[in-house]
Amino acid sequence: MKNVFIHQVYFWLKNPGSDAGREKLIEGLKKYLTGIEVLQAYHIGVPAGTPRTVVDGSYDVSWLAVFKDKAAQDAYQVHPDHKKFVDEYGPLFEKVIVYDSVDS
Q1: Fold of 5-102
Q2: Which region, left, alpha or beta, applies to residue 87 given φ > 0 means left and ψ of -120 to 50 means alpha?
Q3: Tens-digit pLDDT profile for the chain (104 aa)?
Q4: Domain locations in the chain?
């Protein structure tokens, strides 16, 4: 992928390892975020179980979003559906880490 803005989000549930919590969070990502029009591509994931010392598999759910540029990502951040997701599903997670990147 070239000339895109990558937004990677990792969620840790308040109830770590909870199948119900994980499924509910995934439901929220699908319900609110996947339809936001500035989104070019996305991936919803869970730890792959790769047993390497350099791999951090401590998170419960990941969200990868691809945007045309920073302006599109900025629009996503203030989109009403993004705000609804945070308001409705935010109580499920205790920690979130975000990594944003662009082409070097």
Answers
A1: Alpha-Beta Plaits (3.30.70)
A2: alpha
A3: 889 999 999 999 999 989 999 999 999 999 999 999 999 999 999 999 998 999 999 999 999 999 999 999 999 999 999 999 999 999 999 999 999 999 98
A4: 5-102
Candidates 61, 59, 73, 60; CA nearest to 101 is 73
How far is residue 95's CA from residue 23's CA, in Å, rounded to a whole number?
17
The answer to pTM > 0.85 is: yes
At how many degrees (to 10) do helices 80-89 and 19-28 cross?
160
59 backbone dihedrals φ, ψ, rounded to 5°: -75, 165
Closest among 9, 1, 11 to 91, alpha carbons compared: 11
Under a CB-based contact definition with an 8 Å cutoff, are residues 59 and 9 in contact?
no
